[in-house]
Amino acid sequence: MVAISEVTNNNNNNNNKVASSNSTQHGANRTAAHTHIKGLGLDSQGVAKSVEGGFVGQIAAREACGVIVDLIKAKKMSGKAILLAGGPSTGKTALALAISQELGPKVPFCPLVGSELYSAEVKKTEALMENFRRAIGLRIKETKEVYEGEVTELTPEDAENPLGGYGKTISHVIIGLKSAKGTKTLRLDPTIYESIQREKVNVGDVIYIESNTGAVKRVGRSDAYATEFDLETEEYVPLPKGEVHKKKEIVQDVTLHDLDVANARPQGGQDVVSMMGQLLKPKKTEITEKLRQEVNKVVAKYIDQGVAELVPGVLFIDEVNMLDIEIFTYLNRALESNIAPIVVLASNRGMTTVRGTEDIVSPHGIPPDLIDRLLIVRTLPYNKDEIRTIIERRSKVEGLELTNESLDFLADLGVATSLRYALQLLSPAGILAQTFGRNEIAVSDIEEAKTLFLDAKRSTKILETTKNYL
Ligand SMILES: Nc1ncnc2c1ncn2[C@@H]1O[C@H](COP(=O)(O)OP(=O)(O)OP(=O)(O)O)[C@@H](O)[C@H]1O
Ligand SMILES: [Mg+2]
């Protein structure tokens, strides 16, 4: 039993002085390959706008992905498989990322690269199954007794360390919660303080604490603070309705893999799956096929009772030609089971020998019987204008300025080599411009960056002409 006691004397309730530490992370300048991609950029009819959501062109593929997103949301897509096929740097990985952004955080999206399935310790089919189950969500609804409100005060109270020494320990935590109908001050066990810290709770956040387990969940930031911090990643929520202490329907989103883990090692992960974690008799075991089937049975029962709902997500496998014939066979079967996510594959290969076979040559290195089950979405190479726009957008994200001539120059370079190479040159060129004390990247900077860093074609040529180079 966890100790939560209400403090009736509400004197220090106005004590709002506790510094709400501004935890704004200064990571805004970090950019990764796809930082500029923000969704598929479709309108409400599912028609792609030419430059939207960071996406430029590739209209047909984007609209096809939009249809996929709709089908997933309508739960009509499970067990289907899609292949994004197209040349290098035509935006396949970016499309998959955009699909996951469109699905929102509640639908599981599990990305992996073909080669990740090979490990000396875990069987490859086992690794694939694990990822399958990471991509299937379960929404569980439970009614629980909770304390919910906006945090008005958060004061850990120290005690001398009973074992002596210099260290202080925390004897209890005083937390003030405010809801639409009232306020309460609670005195909590130090163990609950740990979960408060884990959830990174600050004054001004809306949280709830389960009375029975003491599990703490941060719901979001109170919208009273919305103007103060303008973080895009922050979810603002209204002040909770009703009393602080009440019964609340709690919706938890977990994946089947979470349940497997929770049941394999019942000691760990208690806060995720308070109910589902103790379904099976506690035994310490690995995740085996048998355990999975038991979990499935219980899940099926809860779905029948209306307590839980299945949310099939997406399993994205990039570089699918890295999979071998054994995995493909397994994949075929897994797709036909009654709980399956939608599987999105991506490949930039043409006719390739299927890995693990001697002589089966097949498109993308995918065996014919799997190809037959795929919906294929094609990505097309970009023309100069599209490359130019992509580079322009990208430079904005990286905070770089380009003259018109250098944009044209880079776009031409992108056509001659590849979009990715042109994008790669942006940041080195930016640094070169800076060292010459210029804000704008000039053509000369790009030319210099180009001599410093080879593209694939030139480097191949050098290797071919100078044998024994390496
Ligand atoms: N239509 C687009 N609009 C904006 N940016 C794009 C677009 N297509 C690709 N990009 C960007 O170009 C770069 C290369 O694209 P991406 O990595 O998605 O290519 P890919 O098709 O996965 O290539 P590969 O086959 O080599 O894996 C990324 O930085 C990506 O964000
Ligand atoms: Mg890719």
TrEMBL record:
Record's function text: DNA helicase participates in several chromatin remodeling complexes, including the SWR1 and the INO80 complexes.
GO biological process terms held by the UniProt record: box C/D snoRNP assembly; chromatin remodeling; DNA repair
Family designation: Belongs to the RuvB family.
A cellular-component GO term for this protein: Ino80 complex
Region named Disordered: 1-32
Top-level division of the source organism's lineage: Eukaryota
Composition bias type Polar residues, residue spans: 17-28
Name of this chain's protein: RuvB-like helicase
Domain AAA+ ATPase: 78-381
Keyword flag Cell division: no
Alphabetized Pfam families for the sequence: TIP49, TIP49_C
Keyword terms, alphabetized: Activator, ATP-binding, Chromatin regulator, DNA damage, DNA repair, Helicase, Hydrolase, Nucleotide-binding, Nucleus, Transcription, Transcription regulation
EC numbers, comma separated: 3.6.4.12
UniProt key word Cell membrane: no
Root EC class: hydrolase
Any GO MF annotation of the entry: 5'-3' DNA helicase activity
Catalytic activity from the UniProt record: ATP + H2O = ADP + phosphate + H(+)
Locations listed in the record: Nucleus
